[in-house]
Write a structure and sequence with these properties.
The protein is 53% helix and 14% strand. The longest helix has 18 residues. The chain is globular.
């Protein structure tokens, strides 16, 4: 008889126990366990993972193990929450250890959920090396966290330590403001393998960079910080397989060929982006360096990459010359360079050759499907391709007139090549954006967008842009989150570096479904791939708001304001974060700034009315309420969700629910889908009418 198969999953395990537990009186043990359990169960990370069914909790007598099947930072954030809560409980001396590794879900003798495997065992060994107050991490966890600036200052290399059975672990101490123990653990100090180490904190990214480089090439890879940063600040760990394709210089006599030169850059970038082994920065962010770059190392640092591809293109009648050079940013050295003189009809072959040689130079591993995707020609008709490039250049300007002209160019391209799938995908995106940037009603825009996206997929089911376009239609027009999730995930599968797909998956699908931590992880990934996108950065802050992580939301939104100081939407989000944090005066100031900057959008006024109502200034709230009505009458539109907020601020809960029902009927999908997670609506929770509506919009069985 065949043995049953054991299925292992990757878990992020937090192990903890109370130091000196066995020496405590039984009553103290019981009381301490009760308090610790309450603190752990009250953390945001525990509640979120438990709600999603992505947590296994294992009691261990003097502590517990928590296995998170969510994101790598979940156990770390949970540990921080626990440590800060224990500041008022000095009698509970807790130590914690975190590791990421394989576990198998099993049932114990009582048929309760349990875990087994190296992931849990290793987390316990990591914890065993600590003293009271310590949060220790394995090297695997530290390497994951070092990818994000948020954690670098809190990671401190302790070196290797010998544990049970002579096994050696490379450990990191995790400590910061209000959490952790900065002292070197006693076992580390006493360990022969670490006793002779110089006792000082080493920036974690530098340490990990050395370890990684030794394993790969036997030499340390160091990243130099720009002048003006504090000495000793931790260095970001940047993958050697990361690249930014900067805008190519247009050397053509006819400067009207700029769209063609931009197209060459974008095609090379798009082909590279399909390789999962590479990190490729989005065109939106690389366009910030449109003029000829000066300090490439500084640009690379801002974009978070190790390599930069720059070049130029010159078009003359039916010929094109392309010069490219791949540069290693750390030392400004040339890795590879080449000049191509070809006929215009060979431009796709040039783009493919450049992308392939760049991937080879970065030692990227390509699957058969990825190699095929890099060599695929989008069309055989160069005239159709040029019309498509003109349309894409206009679509990037995001104005109603430019979007309409872009759609015209895409349609004209289809007259030259009726099977040009990318042109159909462009039309789908164009109509989806038009209902946002113009007065075109969704009832007219969405059917056209859907038809174009479906036609694109009928022609090429492996087109990531078409899957993303269809996902946006399914979410926006149908509020079909399950269908949208399928399409965005397929787009990411086809193009792992597709920042937009990561962004939409996190923001408009996972967040409304209540998978907030997963949403944050996806939007963070989008920020990594498109670091200069104001909307993506702002909505990372909004996701933090949905998670109740207000300090992080405020920090992220303030950073976004530095990036784009005239982007009114960010000020509105910052106002929400301040309001939910109880910082009323600051919230009002931000809502006022949002209203001043959003000349076309009056939504900032609705939030002002709401907050004045909540603090008892009803006369002022009603004054702004009437102002909103006057603006809407002039525009010939009504924002039902905004009316719900204003009624809610005035304490009119039933009227607020009336307006939420109208918001749903009007398909205000950009906001009403957050009904189960929007913390501004918390006063309505428990109301039977509200709960019925919420379950209608997001059914309980949604995943």
């Amino acid at each position: 008889m065949a043995e049953p198969k054991t299925d292992f999953e990757l878990a992020h395990v937090l192990f903890m126990d109370v130091v000196g537990y066995s020496k405590m009186l039984i009553d103290d043990q019981r009381e301490g366990s009760r308090e610790l359990n309450a603190i752990v169960r009250g953390t945001e990370q525990f509640r979120s993972a438990d709600k999603q069914g992505k947590l296994v909790c294992l009691p261990t007598g003097d502590g517990m193990a928590l296995a998170f099947f969510t994101t790598p930072d979940a156990p770390v954030r949970c540990a921080i929450e626990i440590a800060r809560a224990l500041k008022d409980r000095p009698e509970i001396e807790l130590r914690m250890g975190i590791h990421c590794g394989p576990v198998s879900k099993v049932a114990d003798v009582n048929e309760h959920a349990n875990i087994a495997g190296g992931g849990a065992n290793m987390a316990q060994r990591v914890m065993d090396c600590g003293d009271a107050g310590h949060i220790l991490l394995s090297q695997r966890v530290a390497e994951d966290l070092a990818q994000f600036r948020e954690w670098n200052a809190s990671l401190h290399d302790l070196g290797e330590s010998e544990v049970k059975h002579g096994f050696k672990l490379h450990l990191f101490n995790f400590c910061g403001d209000g959490f952790g123990n900065p002292a070197t653990p006693h076992k580390i100090r006493a360990s022969p393998s670490t006793r002779r180490r110089e006792r000082r904190v080493i920036p974690v990214a530098s340490a990990i960079a050395v370890l990684t480089a030794v394993a790969l090439v036997g030499a340390a890879v160091k990243y130099l910080l720009s002048r003006g940063e504090k000495a000793g600040a931790s260095k970001s760990l940047i993958s050697e397989k990361s690249i930014a394709v900067l805008p190519f210089e247009n050397l053509s006599d006819d400067k009207g060929n700029a769209y063609f030169v931009d197209g060459i850059q974008d095609e090379i970038l798009t082909r590279l982006a399909k390789v999962a082994d590479l990190k490729v920065i989005s065109r939106t962010s690389t366009q910030q360096f449109k003029s000829k770059p000066g300090n490439l190392s500084e640009i690379a640092k801002q974009l978070g990459v190790a390599h930069v591809l720059e070049g130029s293109a010159q078009r003359a009648v039916d010929h094109v010359r392309v010069n490219v050079q791949l540069i290693k940013a750390a030392n400004d050295s040339h890795v590879w360079a080449e000049t191509y003189d070809r006929k215009l009809t060979d431009v796709f072959a040039v783009e493919t050759d450049i992308a392939t040689k760049v991937a080879d130079s970065l030692q990227a591993k390509l699957s058969g499907a990825e190699h095929q995707a890099m060599t695929t020609r989008p069309t055989e008709n160069m005239e159709a391709h040029e019309l498509y490039l003109k349309g894409r250049a206009l679509a990037g300007k995001r104005t109603a007139d430019d979007l309409k002209r872009a759609i015209d160019y895409y349609n004209e391209a289809l007259t030259r090549d009726p099977n040009y799938a990318l042109a159909y995908a462009g039309i789908a995106d164009g109509y989806t954006l038009l209902q946002e940037y113009s007065s075109l009603p969704g009832a007219e825009a969405f059917p056209k967008a859907r038809a174009a996206a479906e036609k694109a997929l009928a022609l090429d089911n492996d087109l990531a842009e078409a899957h993303s376009a269809l996902g946006l239609v399914l979410q926006t027009a149908d509020m079909d989150l399950k269908g949208a999730k399928r399409e965005f995930e397929r787009a990411i599968e086809l193009n792992p570096n597709y920042a937009g797909a990561h962004y939409f998956l996190g923001l408009v699908v996972l967040a409304p479904l209540g998978h907030i931590e997963d949403a944050i992880a996806e939007v963070k990934r989008a920020v990594e791939l498109d670091p200069f996108s104001a909307i993506i950065n702002a909505n990372l802050g909004y996701c933090y708001i949905l998670a109740g992580r207000y300090p992080e939301a405020i920090t992220q939104l303030q950073k976004t304001i530095q990036l784009a100081p005239k982007f009114g939407y960010t000020f509105g989000c910052l106002g929400i974060a301040f309001e939910l944090s109880g910082r009323t005066d600051e919230a009002i100031a931000q809502y006022q700034k949002a209203d001043q900057l959003q000349v076309v959008d009056y939504h900032g006024l609705t939030f002002l009315s709401h907050i004045y109502g909540t603090i008892g200034q009803q006369e002022k709230a009603l004054q702004i309420f009437n102002q909103v009505k006057a603006v809407e009458e002039q525009k010939g539109e009504v924002w039902a969700f905004g009316h719900a907020l204003m009624e809610l601020g005035l304490g009119n809960n039933e009227q607020a629910i009336d307006w939420l029902e109208r918001s749903y009927q009007a398909k205000e999908s950009g906001i009403i889908v957050y009904i189960k997670v929007d913390r501004m609506l918390d006063p309505l929770r428990g109301n039977p009418r509200f709960e019925t509506l919420a379950n209608k919009i997001i059914p309980p069985d949604s995943k």
